[in-house]
Amino acid sequence: MPPTIVSNPFAVKSIRRPKLAPTKVVPWSVNRLTAFRKNVQPRYRVAVDLGAGCGLRQGEIFAVSPGDLDPARPVLHITRQIKIVRGSLIFAPPKGGKSREVPLPDSVAGRLRQHAQDCLPVAVTLPWATLTGEPRTVELYLTTPTGLALSRSMFNSGFWKPAIRATGILDDRHNGMHVLRHTYASVLLDAGESIKALSAYLGHADPGFTLPDLPHLLLASEDRTRRAIDKALGEDQGSDDAPQASDGLDTA
């Protein structure tokens, strides 16, 4: 009889799981985003707007309520998400447990108003934070036609992936709903927004969490910075004509 193995030889601390290769962030172009949005069912198009226009995570998008719009200034308060726990949906604080504010562009605000006219917000009651948490009722922009909260699996298979295929986009993990956040980040970096502000809008506790996700977007931003300075100062900055400081040293 062969000897019985009583422990897992691969469980020793000297053996470590190989790390996954980092995923390259490839934001969508405006043309691709527009084409994709047209292929999303009208009831759920505003989900695209909230992802690409406000940088929200999928669970946060599902939990947005008319009450989250600030009546005094154009910002959206992100105070909750919808999570699935052991097969059941709950309301929970945003990832990291911290609420935040994001700028609400006029274009997104207008589409939210139109969406609310076409599909009336529905009051949904779910437990808060845990399966046994206190029930909370929130009016949601996005629900199923029968008035239920959206789940990740149902939305991805029933609405996201069909629109991906209809647009001719590769149906892989790089083109999941998270790509909308990357597109949002790309637009803000292109416009010159700071990493610190972008990190706050994305809900990252530290700007350091933002940087590893966007390395080649940062390189593109650096290229734009160099071109902008070259255009402002002139491309030919020969040392012979460079201004001198009063002490004879080259100016910084």
From TrEMBL:
UniProt superkingdom: Bacteria
Keywords: DNA recombination
Pfam family, one: Phage_integrase
Segments of this protein annotated with the region Disordered: 229-252
One annotated GO molecular function: DNA binding
UniProt-listed GO biological process terms: DNA integration; DNA recombination
SUPFAM superfamilies: DNA breaking-rejoining enzymes
PROSITE patterns associated with the record: TYR_RECOMBINASE
Domain Tyr recombinase span(s) in chain numbering: 16-230
Descriptive protein name: Phage integrase family protein
Protein species of origin: Micromonospora yangpuensis
